[in-house]
């Protein structure tokens, strides 16, 4: 929509640029060329095309409705479950149905505006900030005319599809919120993991206990507590207890006095959960001893207490105190001495 000054001639004054001359004749005014000729759409000329466009818009709204209903059904019928397969299935169906719910509304609104609503250029003269009563009345009439022009009053099916799509879509937001009411919000569970004194370190995912002799300098192992599969909710417990085990030359280690006995002959174990937002930290650079989080590039120095050397993380990775048992297997001395993962309100540090 364009707007012009309250000048009946709509002329625009053109001033000669300072220090610039063309042929000595500079026009003082030129006439507003106006709008380009209006191009009629197919729906404007052919009633069949108009009806076809309306059906297309209704179809898009229907897709949105089906997407919303699928989301609601899938939320209850396909819970995440306890395995990666069920989690993947649930997330896939919920994500696709939500995408169709949103895509249907958005594309329907665009197609409706482009094919069925008035597309002529509109002009409005500038007025004082407060319009006169006559102009206000005219504005109301213009709104009524716009509603009539959109055809919503006489397109009953389209109006019903629009109302249904907009009314149902909020369910995709409300259902997950309502479904979480009564869930377990005991955040104290994040302060402890399955690691405890004498728990053997086992290779993920096989669960085979690992000996110190198996860990050579420069090697990296992803480690879980032995017997993880025998506990309730193993995936939840693994998400908290997963550890990265690395062996360095003991001469390269910089250890605090109170942590010198937390490693074993250069073998150190740190939580694999980034202290930024909880992504899995798993990219180890052997030459620099740096551990990189692939999500936001937080970088930790394994040789120096897993301190942050780059990125948004603010805390080092928690270290798991380890030693060996009588058979040479690596074992935990205790649980982590601090909560793993990102910060939360109830943390003391």
From TrEMBL:
**What's this protein's function?**
Iron-sulfur subunit of the cytochrome bc1 complex, an essential component of the respiratory electron transport chain required for ATP synthesis. The bc1 complex catalyzes the oxidation of menaquinol and the reduction of cytochrome c in the respiratory chain. The bc1 complex operates through a Q-cycle mechanism that couples electron transfer to generation of the proton gradient that drives ATP synthesis.
Q: Which GO terms describe its cellular component?
A: plasma membrane
Q: What lineage, starting at the top, does this entry show? A: Bacteria, Bacillati, Actinomycetota, Actinomycetes, Micrococcales
Q: Classify the protein's membrane topology as the record does.
A: Multi-pass membrane protein
**Stretches for region Disordered:** 1-51
Q: What family is this protein classified in? A: Belongs to the Rieske iron-sulfur protein family.
Organism, scientific name: Cellulomonas soli
Put simply, this protein is called Cytochrome bc1 complex Rieske iron-sulfur subunit
Q: Looking at the keywords, is Iron present? A: yes
The reply to whether Lipid metabolism figures as a keyword in the UniProt entry is no
Molecular function via GO: 2 iron, 2 sulfur cluster binding; metal ion binding; monooxygenase activity; oxidoreductase activity, acting on paired donors, with incorporation or reduction of molecular oxygen
Residues crossing the lipid bilayer are 57-78, 90-113, 160-179
Question: Which residues belong to any copy of the Rieske domain?
Answer: 240-331
Subcellular location(s): the record lists: Cell membrane
Origin, by domain of life? Bacteria
Alphabetically sorted, this entry's keywords are: 2Fe-2S, Cell membrane, Disulfide bond, Electron transport, Iron, Iron-sulfur, Membrane, Metal-binding, Oxidoreductase, Respiratory chain, Transmembrane, Transmembrane helix, Transport
Concerning InterPro entries, the annotation shows: QcrA_N, Rieske_2Fe-2S, Rieske_2Fe-2S_sf, Rieske_Fe-S_prot, Rieske_Fe-S_prot_C
Entry cofactors = [2Fe-2S] cluster
CDD domains recorded: Rieske
**Regions of compositional bias (Basic and acidic residues) in chain numbering:** 1-32, 41-51
Note the SUPFAM superfamilies from the entry: ISP domain
Task: Using the UniProt record, give the first listed, main subcellular location.
Answer: membrane
């Amino acid at each position: 929509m364009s707007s012009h000054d309250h000048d009946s001639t709509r002329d625009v004054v053109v001033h000669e640029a300072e220090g610039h001359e063309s042929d000595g004749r500079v026009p003082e005014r030129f006439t507003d060329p106006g709008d380009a000729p209006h191009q009629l759409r197919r729906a404007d000329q052919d009633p069949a095309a108009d009806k076809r466009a309306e059906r297309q818009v209704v179809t898009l709204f229907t897709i949105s409705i089906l997407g919303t209903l699928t989301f609601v059904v899938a939320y209850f019928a396909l819970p995440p479950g306890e395995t990666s397969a069920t989690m993947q299935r649930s997330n896939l169906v919920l994500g696709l149905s939500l995408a169709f719910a949103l895509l249907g509304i958005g594309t329907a609104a665009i197609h409706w505006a482009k094919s069925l609503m008035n597309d002529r250029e509109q002009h409005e003269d500038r007025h004082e900030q407060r319009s006169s009563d006559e102009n206000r009345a005219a504005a109301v009439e213009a709104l009524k005319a716009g509603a009539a022009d959109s055809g919503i009053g006489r397109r009953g099916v389209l109006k019903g599809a629009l109302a249904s799509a907009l009314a149902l879509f909020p369910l995709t937001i409300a259902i997950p919120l309502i479904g979480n009411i009564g869930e377990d919000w005991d955040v104290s569970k994040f302060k402890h993991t399955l690691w405890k004194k004498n728990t053997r370190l086992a290779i993920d995912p096989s669960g085979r206990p690992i000996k110190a002799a198996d860990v050579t300098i420069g090697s990296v192992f992803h480690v879980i507590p032995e017997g993880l599969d025998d506990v309730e909710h193993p995936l939840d417990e693994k998400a908290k207890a997963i550890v990265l085990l690395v062996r360095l030359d003991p001469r390269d280690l910089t250890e605090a006095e109170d942590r010198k006995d937390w490693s074993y002959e250069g073998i150190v174990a740190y939580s694999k959960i980034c202290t930024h937002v909880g992504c899995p930290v798993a990219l180890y650079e052997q030459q620099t001893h740096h551990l990189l989080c692939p999500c936001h590039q937080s970088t930790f120095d394994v040789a120096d207490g897993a301190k942050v050397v780059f990125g948004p993380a603010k805390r080092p990775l928690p270290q798991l105190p380890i030693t060996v048992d009588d058979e040479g297997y690596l074992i935990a001395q205790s649980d982590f001495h601090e909560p793993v993962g990102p910060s939360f309100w109830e943390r003391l540090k």
